[in-house]
């Protein structure tokens, strides 16, 4: 089956005639604008808006270089299918081989990608080179590797003896490139693109050997504040197909912002904030990683997975966040409301399709207003329910806190009583104060010369012991509180105890001698 036969076998309903623009007409030049350049800029912008892709026709010399690159891919991957990533300025490792014609193919496709980016900027009423400061220097400085890349791939077909390769169409996950624009050259069709209506079509079914398929990426969508949406595509033919895919990427230290778009008078939604190219690329890789993991899970709609915006974001103004209860329909069919509608009327152009806006042709979008009102009422009801639920939770939490504080205070009071009782018990051990006069009652270990004498407490020791000093002799002795009495107590009891103690000692000594005999 030849290339022409393959094109004719493609269903007509899956093929959309994309705008075909000659690179010679699209490339920027010095001097006044020509009619061919203006027509090429408008055609490529309209095709990207309505179909998500466009076709760039190369001149004969550049087309020969691209065909040489495709043949080199076939020869390089003759033994087995594979993928090779070429970056200008990168030195080859020891033993590493590269397909032929990569330097010329990179230069040719890079020139076409930059021309397409300039045309997109011109259509948005920007300077042609408005985004050139975000790209690598042209040409590259010495010892610097380009961030843009050229992907060279080839996949074998299942050949039978004496038969031509047959094409087996199998779906793959949708992809969105991270760069500004992507140019694809292939020797067999096999790329489907999703248009803004969500329908997939074969984008390169009518492409010739001199044509490049133009797709837009995430970086372009970010720096244009969503005015130029990224292209979603998927590869449906992976058999006996060689392809060159050039990705025009921002340089590593660039800051992706919407300052050129804002200077031109376009509206900038809040979601498009300045971000470094490295951080933006890392976030895009994370999204691709999530999508790739999603593709591993079995699902009936696996081949048609497309991330959709939330209902609230569609029904609300991107500037104020208010619901579109005053939505108006423009002549181009797009609807706006709130601050966004005022901005569109000031610019006299639609911020989505860049079409001209006539204030007299506006009419209310009653269906969108009704839906926005219903969603707002549901949102308010949910917010009221959540507020009541939060209030109930707060009351329960406060009640539990009060009970916890009461329980803690009760435990603290009980602990205080225990502490007070312990202090009272300890007070019994120290019934006397320093400097107080006491009488020495003594015990069996107290010397007789101190018993019955009056003394003064000089210091307080541990465990109820005191250091006392006799008043008459001035000698000091260490006694426990049980051996002391206050000086004001009756003396009769003291004298009786003083008389009983020697008698008890004599009796104890007599008993000891008898036991010894």
TrEMBL record:
PUB 62/63 C-terminal domain location: 428-486
Compositional bias segments (type: Basic and acidic residues): 397-413
Pfam family, one: PUB62-63_C
Superkingdom of the source species: Eukaryota
InterPro entries: IPNS-like_sf, PUB62-63_C, Znf_RING/FYVE/PHD
Region (Disordered): 397-418
PANTHER family per the UniProt record, alphabetical: RING_U-BOX SUPERFAMILY PROTEIN, U-BOX DOMAIN-CONTAINING PROTEIN 62-RELATED
Protein name from the UniProt record: PUB 62/63 C-terminal domain-containing protein
Organism of derivation: Urochloa decumbens
């Amino acid at each position: 089956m030849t290339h022409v036969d393959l094109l004719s076998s493609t269903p007509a309903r899956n093929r959309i005639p994309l705008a075909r623009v000659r690179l010679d007409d699209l490339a920027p030049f010095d001097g006044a604008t020509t009619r061919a350049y203006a027509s090429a800029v408008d055609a490529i912008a309209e095709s990207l808006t309505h179909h998500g892709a466009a076709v760039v026709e190369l001149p004969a010399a550049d087309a020969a270089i691209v065909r040489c690159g495709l043949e080199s891919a076939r020869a390089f991957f003759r033994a087995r299918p594979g993928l090779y990533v070429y970056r200008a300025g990168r030195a080859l490792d020891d033993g590493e081989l590269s397909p032929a014609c990569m330097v010329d193919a990179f230069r040719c496709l890079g020139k076409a990608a930059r021309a397409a980016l300039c045309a997109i900027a011109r259509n948005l009423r920007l300077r042609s080179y408005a985004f050139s400061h975000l790209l690598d220097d042209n040409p590259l400085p010495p010892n610097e590797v380009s961030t843009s890349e050229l992907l060279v791939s080839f996949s074998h077909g299942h050949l039978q003896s004496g038969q031509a390769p047959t094409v087996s169409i199998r779906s793959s996950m949708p992809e969105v490139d991270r760069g500004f624009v992507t140019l694809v050259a292939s020797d067999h069709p096999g790329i489907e693109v999703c248009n803004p209506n969500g329908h997939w079509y074969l984008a390169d079914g009518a492409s010739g050997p001199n044509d490049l398929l133009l797709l837009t990426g995430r970086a372009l969508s970010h720096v244009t504040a969503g005015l130029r949406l990224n292209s979603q595509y998927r590869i449906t033919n992976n058999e006996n197909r060689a392809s060159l895919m050039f990705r025009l990427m921002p340089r590593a230290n660039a800051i992706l912002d919407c300052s050129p778009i804002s200077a031109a008078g376009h509206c900038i939604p809040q979601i498009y904030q300045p971000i470094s190219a490295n951080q933006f690329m890392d976030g895009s890789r994370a999204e691709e990683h999530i999508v790739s993991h999603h593709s591993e899970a079995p699902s009936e709609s696996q081949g048609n997975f497309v991330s959709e915006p939330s209902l609230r974001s569609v029904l609300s103004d991107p500037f104020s966040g208010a619901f579109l209860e005053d939505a108006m329909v423009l002549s181009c069919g797009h609807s706006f409301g709130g601050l966004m509608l005022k901005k569109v009327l000031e610019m006299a152009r639609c911020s989505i399709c860049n079409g001209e806006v006539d204030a007299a042709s506006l009419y209310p979008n009653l269906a969108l207003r009704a839906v926005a009102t219903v969603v707002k009422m549901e949102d308010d009801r949910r917010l009221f329910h959540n507020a009541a639920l939060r209030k109930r939770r707060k009351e329960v939490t406060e009640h539990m806190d009060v009970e916890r504080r009461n329980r803690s205070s009760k435990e603290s009071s009980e602990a205080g009583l225990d502490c007070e009782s312990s202090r009272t018990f300890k007070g019994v051990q120290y019934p006397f104060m320093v400097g107080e006069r006491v009488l020495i009652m003594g015990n069996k270990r107290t010397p007789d010369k101190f018993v019955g004498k009056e003394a003064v407490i000089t210091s307080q020791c541990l465990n109820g012991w005191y250091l006392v000093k006799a008043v008459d002799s001035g000698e000091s002795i260490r006694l426990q509180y049980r051996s002391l009495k206050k000086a004001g107590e009756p003396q009769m009891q003291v004298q009786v105890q003083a008389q009983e103690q020697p008698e008890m000692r004599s009796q104890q000594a007599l008993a000891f001698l008898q036991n010894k005999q």
